[in-house]
Amino acid sequence: MRTLVTGASGFSGSIVAQTLARAGFEVVGVHRRDTRFLATLNDQPRIRLIRADIVDAGAFPGPFDAVVHAAATPPGPGVGVARMVHDNVAATFALIDAAVRWKCRRFVFFSSMSDYGEVVQPVVDESTPIHNPDTFGMTKILAERRLAELSGQLPGLALRLPGILGPGAHRNWLSGVAARLCRGDAIRAFHL
Predict the structure, then answer these.
(1) Is the CB of residue 16 less than 8 Å from the CB of residue 5?
(2) What is the 3-state secondary structure (H, E, C) of 49-93?
């Protein structure tokens, strides 16, 4: 099975690409920059890496049987609304449209718990109402809705991930706490 994995230079995308390649899939990994995660994919059999902007997905060396879309631009220093909309909405729409043209059999989208915005319920599930999401959450909601809109043409799955853990994980609450524990820093807790 020929699979496109976006975000190959990130923590999640690199692990997905490695796992699929080891399972015998032919993987094309798309990345924007060189990272320590991308370095783990160099010289791996069954993985071909291409540096590209996902907005240009129509020019990728398709067709592909499946797409795993793990790339995203989260909020951070120097990241404004325009960049998040370009990277998370325009790029995802272009990728979904390309997947429809390729007649992909699967599209897996790494979304985010940020979709929910301010969570006021003790349990989060598919029925949890969306309340005041930030810009990042809104970009993920739009991408999910586009995927749902084309569900008759493209079998898709959106995973609202709370955070991904493992060696090298970063930018989520639990990995931040783990890093502080490993450094011997004090951890403050409340509502225990």
Answers:
(1) yes
(2) EEECCHHHHHHCCCCCCEEEECCCCCCCCCCCHHHHHHHHHHHHH
C-alpha separations of 119 from 59, 123, 130, 134 in Å: 39, 9, 8, 12
pTM over 0.85: yes
Overall average pLDDT of the 139-153 stretch: 96
- For the chain, domains (ranges, CATH) are 2-161 (3.40.50.720)
Per-residue pLDDT tens for 32-61? 999 999 999 998 999 999 999 999 999 999
Whether 69 contacts 11, CB under 8 Å? no
| Separation CA 22–CA 25 (nearest Å) | 7
Cβ-Cβ contacts under 8 Å for 122 (sequence gap 6 or more)? none
Burial class (CB in 10 A: 0-12, 13-18, 19+), 74: middle
Residue with tokens 């631009």: 73
Q: How far is residue 40's CA from residue 188's CA, in Å, rounded to a whole number?
A: 35
**Cα separation, 72 vs 1, whole angstroms:** 24
